[in-house]
Amino acid sequence: MLYFLLSVLFTVALYLIMRAFPRYRVHSFHAVVFNYYACVLTGLVLTPDLDLFKNVIWNSEGTLITLALGGMFVITFMLIGLTAQKVSVTATSLAGNMSLVIPVLFGLFVFQNNNKAFTAVNYAGLVIALAALALGAIQTTKKETDPPTNAASTNAVSPANLLLILPLLTFLAAGTNNTLINYLSVKYYGAGETTLFMIIACSGAILIGTVILIFRILARGEKLHWRSIVGGFILGVPNFLSLYFLLRALASFGNSAAFVFPIYNILTMLVSACAAWLIYHERLNHLNKFGLLLAVIAIIMISYQELGL
């Protein structure tokens, strides 16, 4: 249970840190890039046997695909940051946690590697999960939506309406990310090479992110500030540790993902909402609370067999 709690705390820390970036004038993209430098350094410290890297074939199919996965890391992290800053921490957490629907569906219908037969209750849980995501997104942006004042504004797409898209994009990106992580780690890496896999993926994020960063500095004249570098390194440590302790929790429970992920997601969702309320005073209205309740119900319905219900 300790690994559960640590993974939840470090995951929530990601949302809260990115939520604070605007206050300290930290450039989100710059911080995301340097966050992966910190991820690799943290991973190297936690890797028990660095000789594993001697056996890596860097031009092999598995390694190249894993490096390419780093690009998806950058995209997902940027969407998480935008959603946390422009919408709310609660909506970000809800979108990220409800994204488990995507790897579940891929496991059922594409990879066909599920270890149980899905029932009508499980499928109903997936539908309710989507409803919970929609509720969470609508309620957090509704208060920012003003009625149009003239015909021109009626035809325009308002910033508040655009914010409705951010939780959905975060949902899709996080779900795709988790699906690829699950698939690649099983297909190309052994049981004791999880940390190695994550370090290679984060190295890919460094390569792709740094190239984009250099282009933006040279072409757009963006300035790189020390506070963004420091912010990135602060972000990178909990980023890596959140996954590290989640994997430890999985190992403690016999790699039962269907049991571990629902509990992890429920705890992350509730702790994120409470932390955002306490630290950033994000108000939870009735729709928000109902969305969180639906999310908990959905996750329980998806994995009620493993929970012993």
Textual characterization of the structure:
This protein has one domain. It contains 13 helices and no strands. The chain is 76% helix and 0% strand. It is globular and about 50 Å long. The longest helix has 27 residues, at 194-220. Helix 2 packs across helix 11 (226-252). The chain has 309 residues and is an all-alpha fold.
User: Could you say which structural class the secondary elements and strand pairing correspond to?
Assistant: mainly alpha
Number of helices: 13
> How would you characterize the largest beta sheet?
none
Distance between the termini: 20 Å
Kindly state the number of beta strands. Answer: 0
Shape: globular
Task: Looking at this protein, list some descriptive labels.
309 residues; mainly alpha; globular; 13 helices
Reconstruct the topology from this structure:
Elements: H1 2-20, H2 28-46, H3 61-86, H4 89-98, H5 101-109, H6 120-142, H7 151-155, H8 159-163, H9 165-188, H10 194-220, H11 226-252, H12 257-279, H13 286-302
Helix pairs in contact: 1-3, 1-11, 1-12, 2-3, 2-10, 2-11, 3-4, 3-9, 3-10, 4-6, 4-9, 4-12, 5-9, 6-9, 6-13, 12-13
Short account of what is shown:
By secondary structure, the chain is mainly alpha-helical. The chain is built from 13 helices and no strands.
